[in-house]
Design goal:
Chain lengths: ~400, ~375
């Protein structure tokens, strides 16, 4: 089947809000190339579980597609049209299983050396769309905070090497009340500008005390969910014939309730948490990976005004000789490794914040928890500077907020 | 955001750095080859090492990465011809990309399938044209699918005409069977789906051959394995044993520890790079110290591909190699040995598929179905 054969009835299995959207825009999708439509439907089918910023962006994109004339469609999608698709893909159920279609498309593109062409087509489309529909400006300047190194006594190697050139490095920060000051600030921002999913606190360990107005995700709170998921993965893997691809498909089909995420909870957040664990590689076993990936996805999808990410120690990767020794020792923590992971994770948090609209006005702070080192980045902070003058977290914040 | 770097920019910055750091000369194709003075093809041996699992510039040869590759920087590069721009235009999955390196043709099979390459491998060309016995071409590789890399499904060659393949982790698994150790964890080497360990089929090395060919008792093998910290260390241990007992002329070693990056822990990725750097230098020392290899062996070290750039929004930086961006496609090649110019950097672009025809020119066989061309600076 091709998009030209689409009719509203084919979306009957979609969740209610997604169904409404898909039916409403079916006509706009018909003239478009299959690979583009399937990519878009992968977003549409999840509409009910998307954050407000994602919903608005999707609606604006669909509205733009509806407004294109036939010559414009031909112009906008020429590069997509040039990409060939196999019969098998055309005959797959891409309306109801767009995620699986995209997975198979990806393999097809690599195999037929069309990956670069697809990448280029997607980039050009995104550039064009941005020009026609400029991304929404944030309601206030964004603030990102990353806290790394929880539980580390000392570390002598230089930290924040990737972030220092972009802001000011402080080496004499008084750590007293640092954590509570930061959490208090994000809570204050959440209460003063109450917008759903606009103020986040992500913790790679257990959540510190915080205001309920924050959207919170933590590694420890999801421990039962992670265990349930790992059990399901093990069971699936032990079935004959299961390979990486079928495992991925299996994971993509899981619903929050399958791994113990309660139905009564926030459905949007439950789906977000499920995807962190089913789509993120390593998020099930390493808390540092979990925190970084959760931050990336929160920024990309919810586009928060405030994001505080606190990295916590991950379990130590046991070397081969230990694994062979048959000892059933409890998993230890890798404090230094986690600090290094967090340092890189903070850099990625900053990069991902930069990708959002309003980047020129956004600010960022990274702090080595309970230690004296921090970097602040913001429009008024001189780049590549250093200060060894005594200061504290509150004062650091006063320069960027 | 700054614009993404081009392949040429990447190679330029790497070359400048290498020249500054190691006092290397800039090479050109005008430099005459020196192989006329090297060992004759019949005596020459070649060891190929894939710098396993994909590593990026900024963690290796860029200024900020040099601390992670001290052995290659100080010990190997001054003795090597270094190509700064090796472009992989194929599928960026480890098995299919390594198979493409070994056939000199971009293979297009499913990376996760246990299938042989479609095109003839370097081992088949080598053995058929030079009439070499099966003991003269070997592969030591991680266990995810690589057991079929020794020979292709090409009709002109066929079963038994390629290399023998050793999968050290599967040997270990067999050796440890019945014990209580957590050896299963070791087999989960497909880091993109960390809990998956593939079923084996095809030409895998049998446990009993440990004793008959490698002169290594299962007890000794197990005891030594317990002193090693990673699967790649186990691979190098097997390589040493293979070189001593069998001394193949064509030996291919695929390292893989670095691919732990898929788990998203940067410190483990860096640890993998540092270990691989050390193991590469160790391999060169083994080559120099083994009488069957010293003075007549060329060593080629190259990654199968890189990893995604930090500033490509389609990826997640070092964690994966999914975007197909310039950084993930552009790598390097280091060649050392008799007749190969020392301390020279070449910045012209070569292709991943050029390796096999180059080996063919050096060893004296044609790689007739390869898509690549011999690297003239090395032949």
């Amino acid at each position: 089947m091709l998009p030209r054969d689409l009719n509203p009835d084919q979306f009957r299995a979609y969740p209610p809000e997604a169904k409404k959207i898909a039916e409403g825009y079916a006509g706009a999708l018909r003239p478009l190339p299959l690979i583009f439509v399937a990519s878009l439907l992968r977003e549409v089918i999840d509409y009910d579980f998307k954050f407000p910023a994602e919903r608005r962006a999707l609606e604006r994109e669909l509205e733009n597609l509806r407004s294109l004339s036939a010559p414009q469609v031909s112009d906008w999608f020429r590069e997509f049209e040039a990409i060939t698709v196999s019969d098998k893909l055309e005959h797959s159920d891409w309306v109801n299983e767009p995620g699986q279609f995209i997975e198979q498309l990806s393999a097809h593109l690599w195999r037929t050396h069309q990956q670069d062409a697809f990448r280029l087509a997607a980039t050009h489309y995104a550039d064009r769309l941005r020009a026609v529909i400029p991304p929404e400006k944030p309601a206030a300047p964004r603030l990102g905070i990353s806290i790394i190194g929880k539980g580390t006594d000392s570390y002598t190697e230089p930290l924040f090497r990737k972030l220092r050139p972009h802001g000011a490095y402080f080496s004499a920060v008084n750590p007293q009340n640092g954590l509570s000051t930061l959490i208090e600030l994000v809570s204050t921002r959440a209460k003063s500008r109450h917008i759903p999913y606009a103020h986040w606190y992500i913790d790679g360990g257990s959540e510190a005390e915080h205001d309920p107005s924050l959207t919170v995700v933590s590694y420890d709170a999801l421990a039962p969910v992670r265990s349930a998921l790992l059990r399901k993965m093990q069971s699936e893997i032990s079935r004959p014939g299961t390979g990486p691809e079928s495992l991925r498909t299996f994971m993509a089909q899981l619903r929050p309730g399958d791994v113990g995420l309660k139905k009564s909870d926030d459905a949007v957040l439950s789906h977000f948490q499920l995807k962190l664990l089913t789509e993120g590689s390593g998020t099930q076993i390493f808390s540092t990976t979990f925190a970084q990936w959760a931050a990336r996805e929160a920024l990309r999808r919810a586009q928060p005004l405030t994001l505080l990410v606190r990295f916590a120690p991950r379990q130590r990767q046991r070397p081969m000789n230990e694994l062979l020794s048959a000892s059933n020792t409890e998993s230890e923590l890798d404090l230094i490794g986690s600090l290094i992971d967090g340092d890189m994770g903070a850099y990625y948090n900053w990069i991902n914040q930069l990708r959002l609209p309003g980047a020129d006005k956004s600010s960022f702070l990274v702090w080595f928890e309970n230690h004296n080192q921090a970097v602040v980045i913001g429009p008024s902070v001189p780049r590549g500077t250093e200060s060894s003058a005594p200061t504290d977290v509150k004062q650091l914040l006063s320069w960027i907020v | 955001m700054k614009p993404l770097p081009s392949s040429a920019q990447i190679s330029f910055s790497r070359r400048e750095f290498l020249r500054d750091a190691a006092g290397l000369a800039l090479g050109s194709t005008l430099l005459p080859p020196r192989f006329a003075h090297a060992a004759t093809p019949l005596k020459r041996k070649v060891v190929v090492v894939t710098f396993g699992g994909g590593a990026r510039d900024q963690e290796t040869f860029a200024p900020e990465g040099q601390e992670n590759v001290p052995h290659m920087m100080r010990e190997l590069i001054p003795q090597a011809s270094f190509f700064t721009q090796v472009v992989n235009r194929g599928i960026l999955g480890h098995y299919v990309a390594t198979a493409s390196l070994a056939t000199g043709t971009y293979e297009t099979f499913n990376n996760f399938a246990t299938v042989p390459p479609d095109n003839p491998t370097v081992f088949e060309y080598f053995r058929k044209e030079l009439r070499r016995p099966s003991s003269d071409a070997w592969v030591v590789a991680p266990s995810n699918g690589f057991n079929r890399i020794g020979e292709s499904s090409n009709r002109s060659y066929g079963p038994g005409s390629g290399a023998k393949v050793i999968l050290p982790k599967h040997l270990l698994s067999a050796a440890m069977s019945g014990g209580k150790a957590d050896y299963e964890h070791l087999l989960r080497d497909n880091y993109e789906t960390p809990f998956y360990s593939p079923e084996l089929a095809g030409n895998d090395f049998e446990l009993e051959q440990l004793e008959t060919m490698l002169k290594l008792s299962v007890t000794d093998f197990k005891a030594h394995a317990k002193t090693l910290s990673s699967p790649d260390e186990l691979s190098v241990y097997i390589v040493r044993q293979l070189m001593r007992q069998v001394a193949p002329s064509l030996l291919w070693v695929t390292l893989h520890d670095i691919d732990v990056a898929h788990a998203g822990a940067y410190s483990l990725y860096i640890e993998g790079i540092r270990r691989t750097d050390r193991l590469c230098a160790e391999l060169w020392k083994i080559i120099q110290s083994e009488p069957e290899y010293a003075g007549k062996t060329s060593l080629f070290i190259l990654p199968d591909f890189g990893r995604d750039a930090d500033d490509d929004s389609a990826g997640n930086g070092f964690q994966h190699h999914r975007t197909g961006d310039v950084l993930s496609r552009t790598t390097w090649l280091m060649a050392l040995g008799p007749g190969i110019r020392e301390g020279v950097v070449y910045d012209r672009a070569v292709d991943s598929t050029d390796l096999v025809p180059t080996l063919g020119s050096m060893l004296g066989f044609s790689a007739s179905q390869s898509q690549g061309r011999p690297i003239i600076e090395l032949i």
